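Suppose a colleague, Dr. K., hands you the sequence of a protein chain of 450 amino acids and asks what its three-dimensional shape might be. Before reaching for any lab equipment, you can write down a predicted structure in C-alpha cell form. Begin with the sequence itself:
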Amino acid sequence: MRLVVFGAGYVGLVTGTGLSDLGHDVLVYDIDPDKIAKLVSGRIPIYEPGLADLMHRNMRGGRLSFASSIADSFNTADAYFIAVGTPPDAEGAADLGAVMAVADTIASVAKRRALVVVKSTVPVGTCDAIQARLAGSTSPVSLEVVSNPEFLKEGDAVSDFFKPDRVVVGARSEDARQMLRELYAPLQLSGERLVMTDPRSSELIKYASNTMLAIRISFMNEMSRLCHATGADIHSVRLGVGADSRIGKKFLYAGPGYGGSCFPKDVQALAALGRQNGVAMRVAEAAHMANEEQSLFLADLVDQTLEGVRGKQITLWGCAFKPETDDIRESPALRLAEALLARGATVVAHDPEAGPNFARHFDGRLTVKERDYDALDGSHALVLLTEWRSYRAPNFAEVKKRLLAGPSGLPPLLVDARNIWRPAEVLRAGLRYQGIGVSLQRVADRPSQR
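The predicted structure, expressed as C-alpha cells, is then:
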C-alpha cells in the first residue's frame, strides 16, 4: 500500500518506519523543515533502540521517505495516518489543533478514496468530528476516518510495533476493517491480534489502558508512603499483592512517580473528558494527585535524610522518565531537581542519553556531567531516578570515595528511588541506604525489587 504518516515525532516516526518494514511505501510528513532535513540525511531526532537501523534499511530500500510537502505520487495514497501531538490545555483536556490542521491538509491533497487513520491519542468523538469536518470540506473524494490508537512503550517501541499485544481498530464500514486487516496482516501470522470495534470505543480504550496502568503505579506509590509511616516493607507488600492471579505482578513497583508523554497527559485528559460529560472520574483524578504528591514526598525524603539540603550538593543519576529513551517530558527527575533547587541545593546530574535535554531544560541552573562517577564528586548524596542498566551494579567503593560524608560524620547517602540495589551491599560498602517504602531500620540482606 501507499501510505502517508503526518507527524515525524515519536509515534509517527516509529509507525512510519514500521509500516515501511512491512513492505508498504511510506512518506512521513512534518511541517518542521529542520526535522525533515535531519531525517533525509539519515539522522534520527530521538533515541529509541533499534529504530535508526530500521529507518536506514528502509530508506535504502526506497520504501521510506521524508518530506515537508506531499509529493504528487502520494496524493493517491491508500491511507493517511494522523500521528501528531495532542498536548493538554489549561484544563487538562487534549488540544486537537494539530489533529484538525492535518485533517484539513488531507482534504486538500487527497485525490482518490482513502482512509484517514487516527493514531494520535484523542478524546471520544474526535473521529466523528474529523469525519464531519472532511464532509464539510471541498474535497471531491470519499475519506473514511478510523481510530487506530498506538500502544508503543518508549524504549521498546520497535518490539511493540512488530509484536503488539493487540492492534485496536475502530471503524464503521466493513471495507475499512478489511483494509486494515490487510495492512496489519504480517503482524497476525502468530495469532489474532486485531481488536475490532467502533471509533468511540477505540478512542476510549487508549485512555482507559494508560489510566489503568497509571492507577497501579500511583497506588503502589501511596503504599510506599504508608510503609514509611508504619514500618512495613514495600517489597513484601508488592510480592504478597502481586501473587494474587487476579491482580498480577506488573506495574506494582514503587518509585518516584510516572512521567513521559502518555500517562500524565492521558490521565488528565480522561478526567477532563469526564467533567465535560458530567461524569466524575474520581479514580483517575486521585491517580494524578498521588503522582504529584510522590515527587514532593521524594524531595522531603532526601531533605530529611540529609538533615536539610540547603547549601549541599545532590547528584541525580537518571534524567529520562524511563530507561532506553532520551525523553524527559514529565520526568520525575525534573520535579525533584526543581524542588531541590528551590530548597537551596546544588544539583549535578548524569544520564546515558537524556543529559543534553536535561541541561537545556534547566539552562545553566544545574550541571550535567558526561560520565556517571564524575557527577558524584563533592556531592552529599546520590539519588537514583532512572534504572538504566549501567546504574544497576555500580562500584559502590568508587561511589563512597567520590561522595562526601553525611552530617555528624555519617556515611555518604544513597537514595534508591527505584529500589534496584541490594541494601545490604550498599551498607557493606560503608554507605547509607534509603529506598522508597523501605525503612532504614529494615534493610536486611534481601534482593532488590527488580
